Amino acid sequence: MSTVIVVIGAGSIGQxxxxxxxxxxxxxxxxxxxxxxxxxxxxxxxxxxxxxxxIVDVSSRESVHALVEAAGAxxxxxxxxxxxxxxxxxxxxxxxxxxxxxxxxxxxxEFGNVIxxxxxxxxxxxxxxxxxxxxxxxxxxxxxxxxxxxxxxxPMLQPDxxxxxxxAYQLSKRGNSLxxxxxAVRWGKRGARxxxxxxxxxxxxxxxxxxxxPRGEGYRRMIELSPAGRGGTRMRSGxxxxx
Length: 243
Hints:
This protein has 9 helices and 6 strands.
């Protein structure tokens, strides 16, 4: 029986994490677009990993559940790297909330039901979620604990309240951090752990869309004001190590 690491989102960040934690394991790489999953899978295969690919729409419970079943058919699910998402320059507020907020809640719920003892998950959130102004304690609790299938019905997330893609993105990423804190308790009862990472600007295709999009000037300004004076890069080559 193989030990499986599930990578959701075939982009650069997900691949970089997979390289560091997947030595000796089977990587199941899933993306909304088959060609992206297959291309990324080929890169990891050429680097010496055992790889399978799949299609997943994280905004669909049926699709996420099918991915869980596909991973379980390969072996024991010991790791989940959730790096799928859309940015403010790529989608409407409605789509951002469905993919980045609801989709993350789905992944946490579905994989939290099967993660093996000793397993671990990581959700890629964003520093943008920490740039959102303070929410009320009631709003924080709602984002953290509302049942997944009721999440998008929250009054604070309705179209008349969330009209800007950046606001939707910030709410989603704040919600990701809160949701993981709540889900960590449930995962912990299975002997597993889950954490979020909130990167700053990492140069990926998504970041390039933001840099050249309508918010490009503000994006470049954030880089200029950062202590390093540059965005982050991701490792694409080199040996894989166990973490």
